[in-house]
Amino acid sequence: MPDSSQKPAIQGFYHPDHMHPADSVGYLMRKVTSSIRAQADSHLACHDLTYAQWLPLYKIGFCENATLASMARDLETDPASITRTLDRLAAKGLVRRERSTADRRVVHLTLTDEGQVVAAKVPRVLADVLNGHLIDFTQDEWQMLLNMLRRMLANGEALRQQTTPPPDAAAG
């Protein structure tokens, strides 16, 4: 019986001598993401929103304790970029920033009433855009795709954990 503590062998699906973008999972995922983003942008343009703006607006609506730092982390961007985006959203009257009374370094983010109205439009647009990208998929295929992507994310997280040195390694 194999030892379950051993990591599984990495499959040899790709070979450096035969790498083609059309067959690259990473390239295809990036292209699909780009297509989804472009379609959502075109649908949200009538609300004067870009991807850089509607995504944080949407996420702030879901977060009970959204902060500038958590938003930068969630959106995988630097604090300066998210600050510029929040400046634009605040100028449109959609987002309010408030310094924490407990820690002045922390900036809490909330939607204004108008921000809530605009953010409420995002899920319908995203549902329409995603459904458009899944037009000829069956329910089973959609679920399989979601499961495979979740597995890839879990595999990526496991690889990241393997390459991250233990916290005390630098101290030695």
Structural overview:
With 172 residues, the chain is mainly alpha-helical. It has a domain at 41-121: Arc Repressor Mutant, subunit A (Orthogonal Bundle), CATH 1.10.10.10. Helix content is 56%, strand content 6%. A two-stranded antiparallel sheet has the order 1-2. A hairpin with a 7-residue loop joins strand 1 and strand 2 (107-111). Helix 3 (68-74) packs across helix 4. The protein is globular.
* Poorly predicted sequence stretches spanning 5 or more consecutive residues: none
Which range best describes the helical content: under 10%, 10-25%, 25-40%, 40-55%, 55-70% or over 70%? 55-70%
**CATH homologous superfamily annotation of the domain at 41-121:** Winged helix-like DNA-binding domain superfamily/Winged helix DNA-binding domain
Reported CATH architecture of the domain at 41-121: Orthogonal Bundle
